[in-house]
Amino acid sequence: MPQPVAVYYHPDCLLHDTGPTHPETSARLTFIKSALENAPYSDLVHWYQAKPADAKWIHSIHTPEYRHYIEEACLTGKHYADFGETIICEDSYHAAMLSAGAAIGSVDAVMKEGYHSAFSLARPPGHHASTEKAMGFCLFNNVAIAAQYAELTYGMERICILDWDVHHGNGTQNIFYGSPSVLFCSLHQLPLYPDTGEHYETGTKAGKGLTVNCPMPKDADVDLYMEILDQDVLPYIRGFKPQLILISAGFDAHINDPLADIRLRSEDFYTMTKWVQERAYEYAHGRVVSILEGGYNLEAIAESAVAHLQALTD
After folding, report:
1. Catalytic residue among 62, 94, 116, 128, which?
2. How far is CA 28 from CA 2, 32, 304, in A?
3. What per-residue confidence (pLDDT) applies to 245?
4. Rounded to an integer, what distance in angstroms lies between the CA atom of residue 37 and that of residue 164?
5. How many angstroms separate the CA atoms of 149 and 156, rounded?
6. pLDDT at position 125, please?
7. Which of 16, 74, 138, 286 could form a disulfide with 116 if both were Cys (CB 3.0 to 4.6 A apart)?
8. Which of 54, 58, 41 is nearest to 5 (CA)?
9. Is 308 assigned a catalytic role?
C-alpha cells in the first residue's frame, strides 16, 4: 500500500557557496527537489522546512571548540574549513546547522509523527566529518548526529547506519568505532578517497564487530552490490536487530558520476532501498531515515533520488 514520506528541506542550504567549479554545488538540491515535485508519486512526498539544529546536538558528536571554529571560520570569511577541499563561505555555518537540523527532523518524523520513512534533502553533507575535523566537503556529521539524537531522545539502543555513498564514511566510522549501540555498514569503492574502510576495520572495545566494511571493486554493478548486502551485511543486521535504520544516501556510485568508477544505474537505488526497507520492517517497525550525502552528476542524482523515494513510498 502506498505510504507518504517526509522530506526535510530548507532553501538556505543553497546559500552554502562552494564556487562555480566545485562538484558539491547547490544545484544538487534544486535538481532533486524539482524531480521529486514532478515525480508520479509527488502527492506522497510531504515537505517540511528544516530548522537549525540546537548546538547541544552538534556537541553530542563534535566538540564545542570545533563547532565554534566552524562558526568563526565562516563568519570571518575563511575560504576553507580544512586544507583545501571543504570550501566555506559566510553562510556555510547556517547551512550546516540546517543540514544537521534536517537530519534531526527526519528522525522525529519516523519516531513521533507517524511516518515510516523520511529523507533529509540538505547540504553540506556529513559522513567524512569527525569529532574535530572537517573533511571531504563535510562540516558536521549529520547521520551521526541523527543517530545520537535518536539514542538520547527516543531511547534507541540499536541503530544501524548503512552508508552506500561511493566514498567510505570515515568520519561516521571513527565516531562510532567503539560504540555498542551503532552498527555501521559501508559499501564503498576502494581504492578511492579517503582510502579507508578495509575489511579488517571492524570496531574496537564495546564496538568490536559492529563496523562492517565492504570495499567494492572498480566497475562493480548492482548484482555485486546485492550479493554483498545479502552475504556480508545481512548476517550482521540479523544479529544486531536494529530498532532504526539510517541511510547515508550518497548517489555517487552511479555509472555517470564523475568522481568514481562504480556502475550502478538510477533504478538500482530502488532495488537497494527496497532491500533496506525489508530489513526495517523485519526489525525496526519499518523506520528508515535517509540522509543525503554525495552524488555529483546532476541528472543522475535527481533520477537516483526519485528511484530511492519511490521505493520508500511503495
Report:
1. 128
2. 27, 6, 12
3. 98
4. 24
5. 9
6. 98
7. 286
8. 41
9. no
At residue 115, the pLDDT reads: 98
The vertex-26 CA angle with 276 and 68, nearest 5°, equals 90
Residue type, 63: T
Point out the residues of the chain with pLDDT beneath 50.
none
How many angstroms separate the CA atoms of 26 and 28, rounded? 5
In this prediction the pTM is 0.97
Cβ contact 185:214 at 8 Å: yes
Q: Which amino acid is at 220?
A: A
Please give the Cα distance from 226 to 107 (Å, whole number): 26
CB 51 within 8 A of CB 143: no
